[in-house]
Specification:
Layout: H1 3-57, E1 62-67, E2 70-89, E3 95-112, E4 118-129
Antiparallel strand pairs: 1-2, 2-3, 3-4
Length: 130
C-alpha cells in the first residue's frame, strides 16, 4: 500500500465513524424526548382525574400526587365562574329558565416538589349543581 491509499482509507474511516456517532447521538436525544413526552402524558392522564375529584367533591385547591416515585404538587385557582342557564318547557308550553348550577373553570398548575418550574398546566371545567 502506498501512503496515498492509507490516507484515503483513513479519511473514509473518519467520515464513517463521524456519521455513525451523529446517528447514535440523534437516536439517544430522540429517546430522551420520547421518555419525557410519555411521562408528561402519563402525569396528565393520571392527575386530571385525581384533581377533578378533589375540585368537585372536596374543598381542596392544592395537593400532592405521587407517580412512579416522583412527587408533584398541584394548585388550582378559579379562572372564571358563570351560572349555567338551562331552559325547560313545562306542560303549558311556557319556558321555565333555571340557573341553579354553576360552571367553573379552574386553572391548574402542576410542579415537581422542590422545584419552581412548571411541569404541566391545564384548565378544568366543572359543573356544580346546587
Amino acid at each position: 500500500m502506498t501512503l496515498v491509499e492509507v490516507l484515503i482509507a483513513g479519511i473514509i474511516l473518519f467520515i464513517s465513524i463521524s456519521v455513525i456517532s451523529m446517528v447514535a447521538r440523534t437516536k439517544i436525544l430522540n429517546e430522551q424526548k420520547l421518555i419525557k413526552a410519555i411521562n408528561q402524558a402519563y402525569l396528565a392522564e393520571f392527575s386530571q382525574g385525581t384533581i377533578k375529584y378533589h375540585l368537585q367533591y372536596t374543598q381542596d385547591r392544592q395537593g400532592r400526587i405521587v407517580i412512579a416515585g416522583n412527587i408533584y404538587l398541584w394548585s388550582a385557582q378559579i379562572k372564571d365562574a358563570k351560572p349555567a342557564m338551562r331552559a325547560l318547557v313545562n306542560s303549558d308550553g311556557n319556558d321555565v329558565s333555571t340557573n341553579d348550577s354553576l360552571l367553573t373553570i379552574y386553572n391548574v398548575v402542576i410542579t415537581r416538589e422542590g422545584s419552581e418550574n412548571q411541569v404541566f398546566e391545564f384548565a378544568q371545567l366543572l359543573w356544580k349543581s346546587s
